[in-house]
Amino acid sequence: MIINQHQNSRDLSSYEKNHLLRAGISPTEIDRYGEMPVEYITGKVEFLGKEFSVSPAVLIPRVETEELVELIWQDLSNRADQVNQADLAKQSHQLEPLQLIEIGTGSGVIGLSLASLLEQQQLAFQLTLTDLSHSALEVAKLNFQNLFDNQLNHGQLSFKQTDLLAEIDRVNNFDYIIANLPYVPTTRLNQLDSSVKDFEPLKALDGGETGLRLITQLLHLAKHYLKKTGKIYLEVDDTHTQSVLEQISPDFEIKVKLDQFGKNRFAIATLKTKKTWLT
């Protein structure tokens, strides 16, 4: 009798091995998945210390996106402190809820992470999570159910299937518009690792010729939806410099921030102040 001692031919990192083991899957039994990311194999991913569900309908969140959430939260915290101080001076405690919308939410990790932080700080908010993909929204809804049991104490959360802002009422001016849209230039898609280009949804990666197709469309629309004091937070490609982004968004002041790897990764857009010249 010959015993086939199967040895996994895939070279797994320590992270991948531990991820599989935590899900009760032996690293020696995954050859049938080929190069499929371990997060799709287990259906789970950790993001900012919380476990989220993922599927091939959504991108696997990167560590850089955790930095985006932290960047937004720092801004939200500073804003809340300023509002609270002004409110106490007026001896009034009826704060208007923060209005936030995330475009292209995917699995919902960005919006739901912010919702968790806002809940912890007992800040009133209204958050809309949108995506063009029905399947992606189902994953985000599942994560909302798992994390919050579909209930919030201080905020309101809604889901909307829409192409960018097409189905969003302009009357609802937002304090924050957040988006991690497809930003990889089409010509670079073939250069991505096979675990990415062969398994993750290309529609969520392909940003067109320069990686700016949807970002340009969003910035063109967003000026009609953003409060005068509002901000847009974007995750962008490392080729998207401040000057490049300013060229496609003449209505906005743009600041670009680096990620932990020293690459352009985050853009913050605010509406330009119109100046009145005296004659």
Q: How would you portray this structure in words?
A:
Helix content is 32%, strand content 21%. It is α/β, with parallel strands linked by helices and 279 residues long. Strands 5-4-3-6-7-9-8 form a 7-stranded mixed beta sheet, with helices on both faces. Strand 4 (125-131), helix 5 and strand 5 form a beta-alpha-beta unit. Helix 3 (63-89) packs parallel to helix 4. It is globular and about 60 Å long. The model is unreliable at 1-6 (pLDDT under 50).
Give a short overview:
The chain is 32% helix and 21% strand. The chain has helices at residues 14-22, 38-42, 63-89, 109-120, 134-148, 194-197, 213-222, 242-248, and strands spanning 44-47, 50-53, 98-103, 125-131, 155-161, 174-179, 226-235, 252-258, 264-271.
Find the CATH topology.
Answer: Rossmann fold
Q: Would you tell me the structural class of the helices and strands?
A: alpha/beta
Tell me what the CATH architecture is.
Answer: 3-Layer(aba) Sandwich
Portion in beta strands: 15-25%
The major sheet is characterized as: 7 strands, mixed
CATH class: Alpha Beta
Q: Which residues form runs of ≥5 with pLDDT under 50? A: 1-6
Shape: globular
Helix/strand order: HHEEHEHEHEEHHEHEE
Averaging pLDDT over every residue, what do you get?
Answer: 91
Largest beta sheet: strand ordering: 5-4-3-6-7-9-8
CATH 4th-level superfamily: Vaccinia Virus protein VP39
Helix segment tally:
8
